Amino acid sequence: MANEVILQVQDLKTYFVVDEGTVKAVDGVSFDLHRGETLGIVGESGSGKSVTNLSIINLIPTPPGKIAGGKVLFHGKDLLQMPQNEIREIRGNKISMIFQDPMTSLNPFLRISTQMVETIVLHQKLSKEEAKAKAIEMLKLAGIPAPEKRIDQYPHQFSGGMRQRVMIAMGLSCNPEILIADEPTSALDVTIQAQILEIMQELTRKLGTAVILITHSLGVVAGMCDTICVMYAGRIVERGHTEEIFDSPKHPYTMGLIRSVPRLDQETKNRLYSIPGQPPNVIDLPDCCPFYPRCDKVKDICKKKYPPVVQFDNGQSVSCWLYAKEGQNA
Predict the structure, then answer these.
(1) What pLDDT digit, counting tens, does each position of 99-136 carry?
(2) Can you tell me whether residue 85 is helix, strand or coil?
(3) 21-34 vs 178-182, strand pairing mode
(4) What DSSP line would sit under 153-210, residue for residue?
(5) CA 233, CA 243: separation in Å to the nearest integer?
(6) pLDDT of amino acid 268
(7) Beta 5-18 vs 65-74: how paired, if at all?
(8) Are 57 and 89 in contact (CB under 8 A)?
(9) CA distance 42 to 49
């Protein structure tokens, strides 16, 4: 079923206890992911994008981190309550992750064949010969030339773009239901970025894989994602279909992000727009809107209380006092 919800994140909270206080890296995040959907999570560095997705697959280092609350339901089963042996069966198999820098994700001392075959044998229960054939097939699909030869090479023998293709091939080699891609193109130049995104899109559609794409680039989500969640200071401040977010952004932060993107279809002699101020320090944040010091539409209530979620008829939702009434519950 194309519209089936396969992942539900409900009020997820991930905190890090440090000497200075408690860092609420993720503070009440909720979203659904449908089968075959591509969901983009965007926001500045430190907004909680990566921690959200590391929490989903239970990879938060403890201590100093801890998942302080919420549920992550994968086909109705809470991943946060599973024993480690069960979550390991899902991680890398049903839910895969591509990390930001392939050079640090691939073991430099092991051949690509060793790293790919081990994963496939572990999760797919194939023989080593069958697993290697599957690995070669995935490298070919990911656009690696002469995969039969290159599979026995080491990571340093690949360029940055080719290493990222290897990571995509590894991530999809077990036919996962969900692929989490954490800024998969940020370490690459623009032309290679486009190739990598095209390969990801083509392979995930072919395999029917749902994707959670973490990025700070609105250009990337515009071309790839069906739905967008905008994060700021550990919370989702706006969510909606991609077209609606770009055509009619509601939250001042989303408006600022969109205004910051250079436009090729407009001539301007002015400086590029940038959101004023700096992202907030998320250690012991007060219970108010964290964006208010940078917002040009700030109201008195913004400095006193965090806004509730307001739903619109088109499915878009936003947490902002511009649309909420002061009596509403957060």
Answers:
(1) 877 667 788 999 999 999 988 998 888 899 999 999 99
(2) helix
(3) unpaired
(4) S-GGGS-HHHHHHHHHHHHHTT--SEEEEESTTTTS-HHHHHHHHHHHHHHHHHHT-E
(5) 24
(6) 66
(7) antiparallel
(8) no
(9) 7
Please, which residues bridge with residue 319 across strands?
A: 309
Count CB-CB contacts under 10 A for residue 9. 24
CA distances from 109 to 43, 115, 157, 177, 252 (A): 35, 10, 12, 30, 47
Instruction: Please name the residue that has the structure tokens 């965007």.
Output: 42
264 confidence band (pLDDT: 50, 70, 90): low
C-alpha separations of 242 from 28, 65, 95, 193 in Å: 22, 32, 24, 20
Which residues 6+ apart lie within 8 Å of 219 measured at CB? 261
Residue 63: what are its φ and ψ, rounded to 5°? -75, 175
What order of strands is seen across the sheet that includes strand 5-18?
21-34, 5-18, 65-74, 77-78
Tell me if residue 15 falls in helix, strand or coil.
strand
| CA proximity to 115, closest of 88, 94, 92, 85 | 92
- Enter the tokens of residue 108: 């430099």
Place of tokens 């001042």: 252
Q: Which residues contact 306 (CB under 8 A, 6 or more apart)?
A: 287, 288, 289, 319, 330
For residue 137, report the phi and psi dihedrals to the nearest 5 degrees.
Answer: -60, -45
Question: Are the beta carbons of 80 and 68 closer than 8 angstroms?
Answer: no
Mean pLDDT of 20-44: 93
Looking at residues 41-53, what average pLDDT do you find? 92
Q: Which of these, 327, 258, 324, 242, lies nearest to 289 by C-alpha position?
A: 324
CB-based contact 114:192 (threshold 8 Å): no
Residues 105, 100: Cα–Cα separation, whole Å: 8
In the chain, the domains with their CATH numbers are 5-89+226-319 (3.40.50.300)
| pTM across the whole model | 0.89
Cβ pair 25, 16 in contact under 8 A: yes
